[in-house]
Amino acid sequence: MKILSFISIFTIVFIHNVWAGLNTIQCHLIEITRANQTNDVSHIGYYYDLIINLEENSVSKFIPIQKFFAVNQKFENMKITSKSDDQKSLNFERVSKNNSYPDQTNKYHYSLTDNMKELTVKIIQFDKLKDKMLVDEYSRKYKCKKN
């Protein structure tokens, strides 16, 4: 009986500690800017959740996995580059090599600002055959809320 009690208490404490440092932030796409033209796309209803581990200073997941976060663009535990102590804004980035386009590399810069209420994603595409020549650049803006 004591062993069962100990296991139960250990499990509850472990689960609490695992989830204590995690924040889930839901982000809804509102606009896309490309070639100095901004389009309102809030009617599309596209969204995803960020799961951010503030204790480990990393972004651990995007949910749901969408077309541009497909299996051929895997990432795990992107490190947050911000040195913010108040955790009101975060910056992180990733580089994507898409198997569907082997000569293309995408660099994603994420900036979560305004007390984590706004996310700007800047995407830069490079052509590897042309020695990292810039091919395209655009950005997406999201409105976010903590869950």
Descriptive tags:
9 strands; 1 helix; nine-stranded antiparallel sheet; 147 residues; globular
Q: Could you give a short description of this structure?
A:
The chain is mostly beta strands and 147 residues long.
Topology:
Blueprint: H1 2-20, E1 22-34, E2 37-40, E3 47-53, E4 58-63, E5 78-79, E6 90-97, E7 104-113, E8 118-127, E9 133-146
Antiparallel strand pairs: 1-2, 1-3, 1-9, 3-4, 4-5, 6-7, 7-8, 8-9
Assess the beta-strand content as a share of residues.
Answer: over 45%
Per DSSP E runs of 2 or more residues, the count of β-strands stands at 9
Shape: globular
So how many helices? 1
Q: Mind explaining what this structure looks like?
A:
The chain is mostly beta strands and 147 residues long. The chain is 13% helix and 50% strand. It contains one helix and nine strands. It has one helix spanning 2-20, and strands at residues 22-34, 37-40, 47-53, 58-63, 78-79, 90-97, 104-113, 118-127, 133-146. Strands 1, 2, 3, 4, 5, 6, 7, 8 and 9 form a nine-stranded antiparallel β-sheet that branches. The radius of gyration is 19 Å and the shape is globular.
